[in-house]
Amino acid sequence: MDDTGNRLRFQLELEFVQCLANPNYLNFLAQRGYFKDKAFVNYLKYLLYWKEPEYAKYLKYPQCLHMLELLQYEHFRKELVNAQCAKFIDEQQILHWQHYSRKRMRLQQALAEQQQQNNTSVK
Hints:
With 123 residues, the chain is an all-alpha fold. The chain has helices spanning 3-19, 23-31, 38-46, 53-56, 63-70, 74-79, 83-122.
C-alpha cells in the first residue's frame, strides 16, 4: 500500500475506533447485527493495536479504548442490543466526566495555591 493509502486507512480506522466511545453507536451496530458477524468481530480484535502508545496518542476520546476492550467479550456485545444498556453506559460516562472535571479543577486549584504559597515564602 502506498503512503496515501496508508494515511487514508489510518484516518478511517482512527475515526471508527473513536466512534466506539459512543454507546448509542454501539447500540446501533448491535441492533443491526454487526456484532454477530465473525469478520466484524475479528476486525475489532485487529483494532486493539490502537492501545499501543504510538497510536493511542492520536485519540481524542480515550474511553474508546475501554469500549474496544469490552467489545472483545461476546456477552458485552450481546447486551448492547438493549437500548437500556447503552443508556446506562452513556450515563456512567457522563458521571465519570463530571467527577473527573471537578477533581481536576480541585487539583489545579490546590496546585495554584501551593505555588502561590511557595512564591510568598521565598520572598
